[in-house]
Design brief:
Distance between the termini: 43 Å
Number of strands: 7
CATH architecture: Alpha-Beta Complex
Largest sheet: 7 strands, mixed
Mean pLDDT: 93
Low-confidence stretches: none
Strand content: 25-35%
Shape: globular
CATH superfamily: Nucleoside Triphosphate Pyrophosphohydrolase
Order of helices and strands: EEEEHEEEH
Number of helices: 2
Length: about 140
């Protein structure tokens, strides 16, 4: 495997850290429809940049994909199943956040919309499990 930044051969491969954000608005949560594979609806989130904290990455990804300024409330859980992302082994730390306003899709999101618990679409990755864990533990 080669480094995507410098092209040098890497001696080993590590899982890649990511974040996902459950943004609570008006009793629902914000989901984004992905522009890029794997397609489908998902929680806003993405890769953590080098030198960036998980919390900063969560706030940045929420802003980039939904246009919302979020206030992180707590960390829900970390999900690390090597099969959770078909592209590569990721470890996602999931945050629960509050926001106000209407989400507007940006970055690699085609759409952003608030969904109530009973009307959730099929979700990409392991996000159905994450959302289920959230509603199970806190509602």
């Amino acid at each position: 495997m080669h480094c995507p930044h410098c092209g040098n051969e890497l001696p080993y491969r590590n899982p890649v850290p990511t974040v996902d954000v459950i943004i609570e608005i008006n009793g629902g949560i914000v989901l984004v429809e992905r522009k890029n594979p794997p397609h489908g609806w998902a929680l806003p989130g993405g890769f953590v940049d080098y030198g960036e904290s998980l919390e900063a990455a969560a706030v940045r990804e929420a802003r980039e994909e939904t246009g919302l300024e979020v206030r992180l409330l707590r960390q829900l859980h970390t999900y690390s199943d090597p099969r959770r992302d078909p592209r590569q082994h990721t470890i996602s730390t999931v945050f629960v956040a509050k926001a106000t306003g209407e989400p507007v899709a940006g970055d690699d999101a085609a759409k952003a919309k608030i969904f109530q618990k009973g009307e959730l679409p099929p979700l990409a990755f392991d996000h159905a499990r994450i959302v289920h864990d959230h509603f199970d533990n806190h509602h």
